[in-house]
Every structure is written in structure tokens, then in C-alpha cells.
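Before surveying the methods themselves, let us examine one representative protein, pairing a chain with its fold in C-alpha cell form.
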Amino acid sequence: MTALSSTARFFALRLKPGDDVVLELRKFVNANQLKAVAIVTAVGSLTTALLRYANVNEWDRISGHFEILSLVGTIDAKGEHLHISLSDGTGRTIGAHFGVGSSVYTTAEIVLAELVDLEFDREPCEISGWDELTISRRG
């Protein structure tokens, strides 16, 4: 286990109808040269969502009207690891990895925390077989 403490600064974003949530987060992180970001909270709605379910390699695109119940994850200079929970008009809830190609319906209000003393990266993990988070102090 790796555990490092850090101070944080916070950013509040509002995405508008049609915005791609993941692309907008990526643009914001890159434009502000952020190195270690965590999503603190998010609410809003989507018309499409690109999801990858547990232990499945293919992405699934769903369409409709969905409420964002939660959006969590980490973002670094090169990538992100995001999970989302959504509900439809009947209250049916679904959760999965969240990817590029997901469009805002009415709004997405997102608060990010930058861990200012740290840097996130992703490296191949022999155990999981995926690129996993590495955490280090900023140089």
C-alpha cells in the first residue's frame, strides 16, 4: 500500500448540455497543469454514457435520460480512472467505469481537488494486468 498526505486546492466546474464529461475534465486538468486530481462530488444529468462494466473489456454506450448519482475517480496528467453511478427515469441504477463519449443533458456540477504535493501516474501492474495508479511526491 502507498499512502502519502497532501494539502489540496479545490475547483468547481459546471459543464453545459452536450459537453463530453471526460473530455472536459481532461481539458481542464491539462490547461491548469494539474498532476494529482480527485473528484470530490458531482451531480447532473446525461443523455449518453460510455460504460465499461466489471471484468468486461468492451465499452457499452447507453442512451436516454440519466441522473448522475455519483462520479468518483482520480485524474493525472496522462489519464484517468473514473467510476459513475446513474439512474434512469424509473430509478433503476447502474454503475461502471466511465469513459469518453458521455454527454451532459442539462448540467454537470463537479468539484475537483488537486493534491498539490503529489503526482499521480499509471504503470502496468503484474497482479491486476491493468495500468494502475502510482503516487509520488512532486519533485
Observations:
- Strands lie at 8-15, 37-52, 60-75, 80-87, 93-115, 118-124, 131-137.
- Helices lie at 21-31.
